[in-house]
Automatic annotation (TrEMBL):
Protein name: histidine kinase
Keyword terms, alphabetized: ATP-binding, Cell inner membrane, Cell membrane, Kinase, Membrane, Nucleotide-binding, Phosphoprotein, Transferase, Transmembrane, Transmembrane helix, Two-component regulatory system
A Pfam family recorded for this sequence: HAMP
Reactions this protein catalyses: ATP + protein L-histidine = ADP + protein N-phospho-L-histidine
Signal peptide: none
Length: 440
């Protein structure tokens, strides 16, 4: 019972999409307006048909009663079939027993017959019960002979094609409403898709600035916003590059002066601090430039050979990087950006686990996955997304030797997005971290 109640409540709730809400509102309004128009037309038609029926009844009764009154009694029976109509007929005699009709319908018919027959022929209207309830009007001719008028009130039947016409009109209303809503919602869908795929530094097609004036104005404003964002990003990269360039000279001078000093523990600490400053500047510029990772010209590479070459470079340096499950997949991508992504992930694995394992897979949809696994401590589940943000470090101390700059995973994530891929982190059941880059 509770499940049925929940389903009923869901039916009462308005739809969540703007498309269906507008469609239902417009369609309901149009259907109600169409129904009111059809109802008013039908009521007017009914009133006109009723007035015509009563007018016809009044004229025919006047003529028929006068004719029967003037005919000899033996000839009246032959004229009954001639005087009969679709909604009433004449009978000689008192008719069937009934009860007086006190309703409005009986009163209207009585007035019509009385008006037609005249004051010389009193009329009594009664309702005849049975399988087919109808009315009988009893008239007494001047010679005292009773005449019964058997009345079956009925309006003109509706044409057989009228329900089909009504259904076709409703269908046309639904179709026109759907097309109108679709035309109104389409610009919103275009704007939503453009916002989801917004890449100011990319070469994605701009929104077409056409259509109605409001839509064209919104598209123009969106394109201008995109241009401003691209300008701000480029300006950020230029500023950071300039800062890096300007800092390199004093850092180099300071390093030379420290190296020329006498050996001491203080000298080692100063050299280490200067190295960390230089590394932080380089990583900051690298993160800023990662937003424009698509400036590199795409090239066709064999992913298996590419990853194998990268792993061999680490092995030549004595680093424990192993390869498993290479797939001979070919991909068009930006090799330098991909190398920087994998290098950051492998360095991260070596730093926290001392070893790294690389696997290349390909699913049925043709998407290529490059997975870097380690056996380190992993990342708390609630921080798997946060570590992809810049300057976020799992270790909350300010020691850069143990905590790093907090930009390695952020750069990898940013570059993965820039080359049309994604970076996903998850913990392994057996312990350690699994970082997967999905491309294609």
């Amino acid at each position: 019972m509770s499940g049925a109640v929940r389903r009923f409540r869901r039916l009462l709730h308005p739809p969540r999409t703007l498309r269906w809400r507008l469609f239902l509102i417009l369609l309901t309004g149009l259907v109600l307006a169409h129904g009111l128009s059809f109802g008013a037309l039908f009521l007017e038609r009914t009133s006109a048909a009723k007035a015509m029926m009563l007018g016809t009844l009044e004229r025919d009764v006047a003529t028929s009663v006068a004719l029967l009154d003037r005919l000899p009694p033996e000839e009246r029976g032959r004229w009954l079939a001639v005087l009969e109509r679709r909604t009433y007929r004449y009978e000689l005699g008192p008719g069937l027993p009934g009860v007086p009709d006190l309703g409005s319908r009986g009163a209207e018919i009585a007035r019509a017959i009385n008006g037609g027959a005249g004051p010389g022929f009193p009329v009594v209207v009664e309702t005849i019960q049975g399988n087919r309830p109808h009315l009988q009007a009893h008239v007494t001719l001047r010679d005292g002979s009773p005449v019964t008028i058997d009345v079956t009130p009925a309006l003109m039947p509706l044409a057989a094609w009228l329900p089909l016409l009504l259904a076709a009109q409703l269908l046309l209303l639904a179709l026109c409403t759907w097309l109108a809503v679709r035309q109104a919602i389409r610009p919103l869908t275009r704007f939503a898709n453009a916002a989801e795929t917004l890449d100011p530094g990319g070469k994605a097609a701009r929104l077409e600035e056409d259509g109605p004036s409001e839509v064209a104005h919104a598209a123009t404003a969106f394109n201008a916003m995109r241009d401003r964002i691209a300008h701000y990003l480029e300006e950020r990269v230029r500023i950071l590059a300039a800062i890096s360039h300007d800092l390199q000279t004093p850092i180099t001078r300071m390093t030379l002066r420290v190296e020329m000093a006498e050996d001491s523990p203080e000298k080692e600490r100063l050299l280490r601090d200067l190295s960390q400053i230089e590394r932080l500047v380089r990583e900051g510029v690298a993160y800023a430039r990662s937003a424009h990772g698509d400036v590199e010209t795409p090239a066709r590479i064999d992913v298996g050979s590419f990853v194998e070459s990268l792993a061999f470079d680490y092995q030549d340096m004595g680093k424990p990087v192993t390869i498993r499950g290479l797939s001979g997949a070919v991909l068009i991508t930006r090799p330098h950006a991909l190398r920087r992504i994998l290098t950051n992930l492998i360095d991260n694995a070596l730093k926290f686990a001392g070893e790294a394992e690389i696997t290349v897979t390909r699913d049925n949809g043709g998407r290529i996955g490059i997975v870097v696994r380690d056996t380190g401590p992993g990342i708390p589940e609630h921080q798997l997304t946060a570590v992809l943000q810049p300057f976020y470090r799992l270790e909350q101390s300010r020691n850069r030797d143990s905590g790093g700059t907090g930009l390695g995973l952020a750069i990898a994530h940013q570059l993965a997005l820039a080359i049309g891929g994604s970076l996903t982190l998850r913990n392994r059941r057996t312990g350690g971290l699994c970082a997967e880059v999905t491309l294609g």
